[in-house]
Amino acid sequence: MNDNSSHPTLHHSRRSTIRRHMQRRYFRFYRRVSRWTFLPGAAAPTTWRAEHWILGGVAVIVCALVGIVAPGFANATRHDPTALTTLALDLPQLPADAAIGAYAGDSEPDWRIVTVQPGQSLSDIFRAQGFAPATLQRVLDSQSDASALRRIRPGQQFAFTTDASGALVAMRFERGDATRVVLHFAADGIREQVEDRAVERRVHIAHGVVTRSLFYAGERAGLSDAMVLKLADAFGYDIDFAQDLREGDSFSVVYDDLYRDGELLRGGDIIAATFINDGKRYTAVRYVNARGESMFYSEDGRPLRKSFLRTPVEFTRISSLFSTGRMHPILGKMRAHKGVDYAAPSGTPIRAAGDGKIVFRGWQSGYGNFVMIQHNAHITTAYGHMSRFANAKVGQHVSQGQVIGYVGMTGLATGPHLHYEFRVDGGHRNPLTVTLPPPEPLPAGELAQFKAATAPMLAKLRLVDGTQLARVGH
Can you give the pLDDT at residue 97? Predict the structure, then answer.
C-alpha cells in the first residue's frame, strides 16, 4: 500500500525536474531573441548565428518569388506591337524637273536693288554697277518705247542680278504704276517679261483745326506734309496762308492714296475740301474739264485758279514800283517805269502769269533777255532782265505757272531782278493794282455734268462738317 501511494508523487517530481532542465537549457536563446529588431538605428548583432541564417534565408526566398512573379505581371500589361494598325497613304507626285527649281525657290533671282538719286541717269547707274555702255545700249534697243528708261526720277528703283562673272543676267524696272518689266539677257538677245500689278486708289476723309500751324493741324488729322501743301495750293488763290491764317480755322478734306499690291505707293490728290478762314467758308472740288485739264472749282463750277498770278516770281523785295516818272539808276534822267521790279537771287525761276502764247523771246535793248506772252485779244505780259530762257519757244502755248526763264541782270540793270509788265490793249497798267479779269466759268452744257460728278464728294464734305459742328455744340 505504501508502494502504490508513493508512485504519483514520484511521477510529478520527475516532470518538474525535466521542465526546470529545459528552462535552463534554452534561457540564453530566449534572451537573445527578445533583443532582435528591424528599426533603424537599432544595434545589429555583430556575428551571424542560427537565427541570422534563418532570417537571411527568408529574405532570399522572398526576393526569388518577386523575381519570378514581377516579369510575368509586366508582360501582362505590355502592348503587343503586332496589334498596331498601319495605313498606306499616297503622296502627291513630285513636280516635273523644270518646276523643281521653282519649288526650291531657285526661280527668283537674287536681286540687287538700286534707288535713283537726284541728278542720276540710267547711264550713271549702269556705270556704278560695273556694266559696259554696250549693255545699256542693248537694253534701250530692246524697247519699242524707251521713255520709261530715259526719263527716270529720284526714288525710282531698278533691280539687277548677275552671274558669277559679273555679267548682267536680268534687269527689273517699273513701266508706269501698274506694269513691271523684267528683262532676261541671253547670248541671242533679250527676252521681255511683263507683269501686271494691282493698283488701287483708297479714299480717306480728314478734319483738322488750326492751333499752332497748318502743318501741325494736318499732322494731327493724319495728313502728310505733301498733302498739306496740296491743300494750301487748292485754296492759295483765295487765302494767303502766310498772313491770313487764324487760330480756330478748320478744314475738311476728301483725298486718296495710291496702293500697289496692297502696299502704299505714294500719296494721291485732294478730291474735295472745305476751309473755314476767319469765319468764311471756301470750297474746292477737283474736276477734269472737257479740255482734259484737272482743276479745282468752286461749288458753282467757277475755277478757283485766277486768270493771272499777281507776282510771277518768288521775290525778296520790290526794288522799284510802277511810276510815270522816276530817275533811271543807269541813264541818270527822269523816265517812266512801266512795270514792277522784283529783286530776287540770280537763277530764281520766272513763271508765266497766265495761260497764253509766247509772241517774243530774245534780246530787247534795255530789257536784256526778254519774253512777251499774249494771253487773249487784249492782255499781254512782259518779263525782262532774264539770265537765260527756259525751253518754251516763240509760238508755243504755255500754262499759268510754267517756268519761262530765270532771274538775271541782263540789259540795263544794276542787280538781279525781274522787270514785270502788264499791258491792256498795248497800254501799261500797274501789275499790283490792276483789276484782274475773273476766270471763265464752265460752259452751261458742261455745268450739269460737273454738278453730277462732284455731288458725292460735296455730300461727304457736308457730312463731315456737320458731324464736327455737332461735336462742338455738345
Answer: 40
What is the C-alpha to C-alpha distance for residues 70 and 414, in angstroms, rounded to an integer? 119
Where are the domain boundaries for CATH 3.10.450.350 in the chain? 109-196, 198-305+439-474
As beta bridge partners, residue 161 has 170
Contacts of 108 (CB under 8 A, 6+ apart): none
End-to-end CA distance of the chain: 144
CATH of 198-305+439-474, one of 1.10.1660.10, 2.60.120.1440, 3.10.450.350, 3.10.450.50: 3.10.450.350
**234 exposed, middle or buried (CB, 10 Å; 0-12, 13-18, 19+)?**
buried
User: What 3-state DSSP class applies to 374?
Assistant: strand
In this prediction, residue 284 carries a pLDDT of 93
- Residue 53's pLDDT is 65
Q: Is the pLDDT of residue 109 over 60?
A: yes
CB atoms within 10 A of CB 125: 18
Three-class SS of residue 139? helix
Question: CA-CA distances (angstroms) from residue 123 to 42, 136, 173?
Answer: 101, 7, 15
**pTM of the prediction?**
0.53
Q: Which of 183, 163, 162 is nearest to 172 (CA)?
A: 183
Which residues does 434 contact at the CB level (< 8 Å), separation at least 6? 422, 424
| Count of helices and strands (H, E) across the chain | 9, 22
255 near 269, Cβ under 8 Å? Answer: yes
The CATH fold assigned to 109-196 is Nuclear Transport Factor 2; Chain: A, (3.10.450)
Say which amino acid occupies 198.
Answer: A
Question: Greater confidence, 329 or 390?
Answer: 390
Q: What digits encode the pLDDT tens for the residues 80-98? A: 544 545 555 565 554 444 3
Q: What are phi and psi of 225, to 5 degrees?
A: -60, -35
Per-position DSSP letters for 273-327, written without gaps between them: EEEEETTEEEEEEEEE-TTS-EEEE-TTS-BSS-SS-S-SB--SEEEE--EEEEE
Residue 7: per-residue pLDDT: 53
- Quick one: 317-429 is in which CATH superfamily? Glucose Permease (Domain IIA) (2.70.70.10)
pLDDT at 331: 47
Helix (H, G, I), strand (E, B) or coil at 82: helix
Q: Note whether 274 and 261 are within 8 A (CB).
A: no
Chain mean pLDDT for the chain = 79
- Interatomic CA distance for residues 334 and 326, integer angstroms: 5
pLDDT tens per residue, range 110-158: 899 999 998 889 999 999 999 999 999 999 988 888 888 888 888 889 9
